[in-house]
């Protein structure tokens, strides 16, 4: 809320002041306190109480912070050009023994399961949705967990869980919602495969098999915009390996 990373407790008067400031930032940074009180049909005392709720001793300090916030809004958001070499390096690594051994072990595990459950949040959720569709179209019944945070995991009994394999997707491998979900799956004796950017993570450690892809991470502010291309490639490659193993064993 403005320059705060949390929402303070605002009264109805505070909300009216906030709405005016938020829609007139360019003018407010040059106003006197009496001018703002007049524009918001409040008092200078109300303005001062409002400023304290935003961690400021007075209106002058509030205007300084507001002006810095205003300048940050004007800064252009820049992203790096797509680095094709990171993708080609990943494809090359995918042919090496380390990656192939993990893929073969994961495919062998999946080939013995009747149901595949995909789980992910954020951009990984999109890959989880695609993975469930892709797996279902090739060889096996699969679905994805729509909302890991609010979706309970009490729909498997232990006898059924032994025929289930969970595929968890996470770039960082440290997503709290996924970690909590995997702990429930572990108690139900489900098999777990994770696809993460690094094997040095909590989600990787909770998995029976981890397939790391090791690609450079990228962020804009609080948003993780690391490419999901390696995760997508891994999901498709894994599905085809399982299909191949099933055909070889039939």
Question: How does this structure look, described?
Answer:
The protein has 250 residues and is of the alpha/beta class. The protein has helices at residues 12-23, 25-28, 33-39, 44-53, 59-74, 84-93, 97-111, 123-138, 158-161, 176-187, 202-206, 229-249; strands at 115-119, 141-144, 164-170, 191-196, 209-212, 219-220, 223-224. A 5-stranded parallel sheet has the order 2-1-3-4-5, sandwiched between helices. The radius of gyration is 25 Å and the shape is elongated. The protein starts with 11 loop residues before the first helix and ends with a helix.
Short description:
This protein is α/β, with parallel strands linked by helices. 53% of the residues lie in helices and 12% in strands.
């Amino acid at each position: 809320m403005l320059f705060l990373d949390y929402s303070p407790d605002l009264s109805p008067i505070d909300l009216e002041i906030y709405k005016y400031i938020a829609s007139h930032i360019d003018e407010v940074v040059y106003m006197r306190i009496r001018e703002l009180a007049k524009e918001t049909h409040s008092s200078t005392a109300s303005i001062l109480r409002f400023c304290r709720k935003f961690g400021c001793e007075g209106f002058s300090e509030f205007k300084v912070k507001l002006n810095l916030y205003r300048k940050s809004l004007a800064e252009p958001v820049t992203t790096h050009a797509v680095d094709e070499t990171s993708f080609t390096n990943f494809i090359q690594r995918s042919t090496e023994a380390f990656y192939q051994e993990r893929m073969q072990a994961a495919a062998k595990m999946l080939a013995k399961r009747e149901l595949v459950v995909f789980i992910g949040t954020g951009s990984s959720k999109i890959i989880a949705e695609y993975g469930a569709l892709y797996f279902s179209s090739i060889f096996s019944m699969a679905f994805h967990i729509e909302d890991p945070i609010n979706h309970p995991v009490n729909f498997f009994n232990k006898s059924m869980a032994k025929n289930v394999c969970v595929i968890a997707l996470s770039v960082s491998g440290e997503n709290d919602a996924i970690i909590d979900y995997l702990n429930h799956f572990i108690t139900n004796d489900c098999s777990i495969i994770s696809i993460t950017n690094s094997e040095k993570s909590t989600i990787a450690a909770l998995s029976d098999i981890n397939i790391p892809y090791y690609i450079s991470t990228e962020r804009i502010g609080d948003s993780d915009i690391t490419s999901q291309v390696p995760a997508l490639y891994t999901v498709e490659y894994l599905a085809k390996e399982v299909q191949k193993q099933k055909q070889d064993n039939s």
